[in-house]
Each structure stands twice: as structure tokens, then as C-alpha cells.
Design goal:
The complex is a heterodimer of chains A (108) and B (118). Chain A is built from no helices and nine strands. Chain A is mainly β and 108 residues long. The chains are: A mainly beta (108), B mainly beta (118).
């Protein structure tokens, strides 16, 4: 089945830029969504359809997708961005929704 | 706009459980619906989904043949019948909605805990 690979952790100082990658075979041909999950809360979509932001999500959150890597970029990181982040695709070859393993973002 | 899950409980291995998810504030019948679970301290795992009219259903391999997803659009409700439960099914179970098969999960419930233990 399709596999999405994320780094387990990313650390960044406040005000800096966090980059979270999501690797998958020809992921650029798929549609990628990104979720933020704070402890004890349900996930929240922060980027959908590779690069679009739902209303209410700051412009600091952006996404891209090409080749074998999709990327979530968080600019001007704030303490409140500390959370787990997951990428997700629909794999048509298996008719499965697939989540990446998740990345814990730590704001130093 | 919300989804509210219920039915989670502590059960023994081999037993059954039925989860429910009540939708309100949006056009439930227009959305694909999914169950997503999260074992304690672990990541998100998609479990199953069902098309708007219930005519298409998909399952992760580990639950196929044991779990059944269903919906009642007249009651704005989603269900997950879980049979032959195993310890590895222990997780928080979320219901989530998507406008299309490849779409993102825009609305999530708060989750309901299922614990399988003797």
C-alpha cells in the first residue's frame, strides 16, 4: 500500500520558518492535505488540495507538492503553532485514505 | 456545524461495539464520511469511508471483514459496527466528513474512546 514518510520531529525558534516534508512515490500526482493536531484535540485541516487554506487559517501556513515530496511551510512560527502535523492523500490504487506518520513541531 | 461521536466503551477481546456519529449544521447527505482512529500516543489511521448514498464503502485491510460502516441520511447519522474486537483496535475513533473522495476532512468530531482489554 502507499506510504507517506514524514520526519518525526522538527524544531524551530519563534519567528523562524518551519518546513515539514511528506515523501511519497510520485506524490506530486496526488492531492495532499495537511492537518494540525494539538494535544487532546481533534485534527484541523490547515492546507487542502496541495496549497489552499481554509478560511481562518493564517497566511503563514502554505503548501506545495511536486515530484516525490509535498511540503508544509509555516512562516513566522509562533508558540501556538506547536502541535503534531499530518499529511494525507487518497490512494486510488488501493482505494484507501493514507496518513503520514506525523511530525511533532516544537517551538524552541 | 458539528459531528458528535458516541458509543465508545471498554470491551473484552472478541466482543462487539457500535459507534455512532450525529451530524448537524451541514448537508450530511452531500458528504463522504469516514472513521479515523488514533491509538494512544500514535498517529492517525483511516479506518473506513462511505459514499454519500452508501453505495461505495472502503476499509483499511486490518478491519476488513470485522468492521462495517453505514449511514442513515434521514437521521444525519454515521455508524461503525465493530465485531471481533482486538487489543490493537484500542483507540480514539473520530468521524470526519469530506466533500469528495479525494477531498480533505473539513469537519471532525471530538472522538470517542474504544478500549479492548481483558
Amino acid at each position: 500500500s502507499y506510504l507517506l514518510t514524514q520526519p518525526p520531529s522538527v524544531s524551530v525558534a519563534p519567528g523562524q520558518t518551519a518546513t515539514i516534508t511528506c515523501g511519497g512515490n510520485f506524490i506530486g500526482s496526488k492531492t495532499v492535505h495537511w492537518y494540525q493536531q494539538r494535544p487532546g484535540q481533534a485534527p484541523l485541516v490547515v492546507v487542502y488540495d496541495d496549497r489552499d487554506r481554509p478560511s481562518g487559517i493564517p497566511e503563514r501556513f502554505s503548501g506545495s507538492n511536486s515530484g516525490n515530496t509535498a511540503t508544509l511551510t509555516i512562516s513566522r512560527v509562533e508558540a501556538g503553532d506547536e502541535a503534531d502535523y499530518y499529511c494525507q492523500v487518497w490512494d486510488s490504487s488501493s482505494d484507501h485514505v493514507v496518513f503520514g506518520g506525523g511530525t511533532k513541531l516544537t517551538v524552541l | 456545524v458539528q459531528l458528535v461521536e458516541s458509543g465508545g466503551d471498554l470491551v473484552q477481546p472478541g466482543e462487539s461495539l457500535r459507534l455512532s456519529c450525529a451530524a448537524s449544521g451541514f448537508s450530511f447527505s452531500s458528504y463522504w464520511m469516514s472513521w479515523v482512529r488514533q491509538a494512544p500516543g500514535k498517529g492517525l489511521e483511516w479506518v473506513a469511508n462511505i459514499k454519500q448514498d452508501g453505495g461505495d464503502r472502503n476499509y483499511v485491510h486490518s478491519v476488513k471483514g470485522r468492521f462495517t460502516i453505514s449511514r442513515d441520511n434521514a437521521k444525519n447519522s454515521l455508524y461503525l459496527q465493530m465485531n471481533s474486537l482486538r487489543a490493537e483496535d484500542t483507540a480514539v475513533y473520530y468521524c470526519a466528513s469530506s466533500p469528495r473522495l479525494r477531498g480533505s476532512f473539513r469537519i471532525w468530531g471530538q472522538g470517542t474512546m474504544v478500549t479492548v482489554s481483558s
